[in-house]
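[step 3/7] fold_predict: job queued, chain A
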Amino acid sequence: PSGNKPILAVRLDAATRNALRRAAEAAAITPSESLGTAVAAGASFEPSDEAHLHMDFVLCSDLLAKMPMKRLHSLQEALQKMVGDAAEAVALPMSFQRFELYAPDKNFLVARFKVPEALTLLRRAVWRECRSSGIAFPDAMWMPHVKLGKIKGLSRGQLNEVSCDGLAPFAPLAPARPLGLFLRGGALPEQADPGFWDQALLFAPSPPPPLSAPAAPSGRPASGRGGGRGGRCSGEASAARVPAVAAGAARVGGRIAPEMAAMQQDLGVI
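[step 4/7] structure written:
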């Protein structure tokens, strides 16, 4: 039930979004090479806008736009405290797992990631808070993923024949870095401050990936295959690990430290 409804999402670093954008573009330009011959006859792939290449966290309903300001402020305070308490623990690298088709319909191509346990626990707490406020859908289970786009023109049987092996060279080379939560899509109450939902739920900064990655054979990005359900749509890659988050991220007077702001600006999020 996403559509254009508000979605609380995990903002990803620019390098990860660029890698996923290239994978989506490859699926759109050469679908038969990227997704197998099942998509060659009359089918197409519609890539997601790069602005949507973030990890869905909590799907919200249109009731968010109708919340009384007092209840909205209470929700914002609760979410800000949850994120602040968990910020450093959740700002760890997330390794790419594979490309696959999103069940049960299997017409969405997604990138799966392995997230730190602290982020899973934060998601559960945030979802419960949103549910108690009456704005969250009843989706207690969370499968961390990023939607790359939608396959059109295939039957369910044909979708079962799609293979994501051709996308393996486009797997992100380095783990993704979660930068914080933000709200995209939908609408807020008329008097609400949109800046809160864009900047107030940031995580502690994590270090940038290495400047250069190990060279892969034939000049292609290092990637692996296999591990997907039934041997299909795997496109797994073992990404290089990056150092753990620097402890004690500075926050002064509730403001983001200058170095955090600079990093956010470099990544194009402020």
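[step 5/7] annotate
Confidence is low (pLDDT under 50) at residues 211-231, 235-270.
The first strand starts at residue 7 and ends at 12.
exit 0
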